[in-house]
Amino acid sequence: MLFTFCQEKVEYNPGGIFVFARQRGRIDGDAVNFYGAGAPSGCVDCVIPMNRVLLFLLLTLTASSLWAAAPNVVMIYTDDQGYGDIGVQGAKGYITPNLDRMAAEGMRFTDFYVAAPVCSASRAALLTGCYPARVGINGALGPKSRTGLNPDETTLAEVMKAKGYVTGMFGKWHLGDHPDLLPVKQGFDEYLGLPYSNDMWPENPNAKKGSYPPLPLMENATALDPEVSAEDQATLTTRYAERAVRFITEHNTKPFFLYVAPSMPHVPLYVSDKFKGKSAQGLYGDVIQEIDWAVGEILTALKTQGLDGNTLVIFTSDNGPWSIYGNHAGSAGPFRESKGTCWEGGIRVPCLMRWPGKIPAGTVCREVAGTIDILPTLAALTGAALPEKAIDGKDIGPLLRGEAGAKSPHESLVFYYGNHELQALRSGKWKLILPHTYRTIEKTGANGMTGKHGRATTGLELYDLETDPGETKDLAATEPAAVQQLSALAQIAREELGDTLTKTRGKGQRVPAAVTWP
Ligand SMILES: [Ca+2]
Ligand SMILES: [Ca+2]
Fold this sequence. Notes:
The protein is α+β, with helices and mostly antiparallel strands. It is built from 13 helices and 25 strands. Helix 8 (236-250) packs parallel to helix 9 (283-304). The longest helix is centred in the middle third of the chain and has 22 residues, at 283-304. The protein binds calcium ion (CA) (2 copies).
């Protein structure tokens, strides 16, 4: 199709991409966005006439073809699901056909990292594109938290919303449960879910009576159910999935950003009756099979609504398995330790990305990337503006597109845990462990009961993750050049993000929210 405006011929193709004054652009929402430097010079008002063109196009094109260039995004972020907890990565005793299908139809990342081995810090990184050390979220926030993600931070939802996306979140938030800090105050149009972990609950069998207030199920900013019961916990995975499907159906003519954060498989494990007893593994396997079913429901809804080819679906987990729970925890696969440590088992997670026709099917990406990259990647993909404040993630679009020779954009990824301690970093094949003490497991528990933790200490250690993914052979003594190179990168990170182990204040640290409760 050709249109004339601003004395220029405009070529429009129903895929949504157009060429104007030799620049490629895209129609997003009610605005026209040019790739690269912005509107062509000499036509600063071209957005306005294009809106008129857009009105005409609305009458002549189906909605799905019009929005073809502004992909929907579905991001699924499970809780404590380990690297080994999907079929294609060796899950035993249960099956994940829908996740395996995502791998077969999309890209599987083998070297994909969360920014921290614990819920709140990990989620802060996902939603801001920043290291949690930068935005001041270190651990796991408790109920009635007096802190949370600062509203001054720009979340992924806000990035997408500014681009005209409808935004919805169903699941666990865990970035501040104060009414001023909930998802609807951080860019989500719609929210249903638990405000924090499902074990911060009066019925937690591992907590002293009175440790926790009633656990609410929130809808937007109010409690839909002020006291979640065990029966309610068993409905959560399906409930979030149903809301996700409803959201997709309701917004099938607009670009949307949907964030689904299952409360499972975080202990205490609960599963709906339709999955109870279905896996050979037991309850943990049942729970993962219900999550896998939920992924299938979402993929089916996308297909039913004709959005399959126009939607990027991302699946990953917020940290490694909570291994102290024994048969109620998953598997870190070949990796050392688990949740709550910066060994690979705590921070390397399953990651699948599927976008038929755009991400090459059945591919495996072995480049280093992480959840901090999702925000800048989606911003680049949709033409959205990046947050004004500094972020740490990078656009991994070239990896997603399977471009020949595409490399990780990171010279290093750094990992903080505990009280703002820089404990480890990865650069290329090397992993440097900085001297620190960490929590280990002396005895695992079973059937929902915890085991016994111990403490361990590590010195400065170096591992070659290509030949030794299990971090078993410390090469610090024989590879001094790598130790020196990674130590220098660690020092750069400290100066920017701080580090309590070396009592360093970072120049790029920002403050979390501070709220008071009545
Ligand atoms: Ca978690
Ligand atoms: Ca904000």
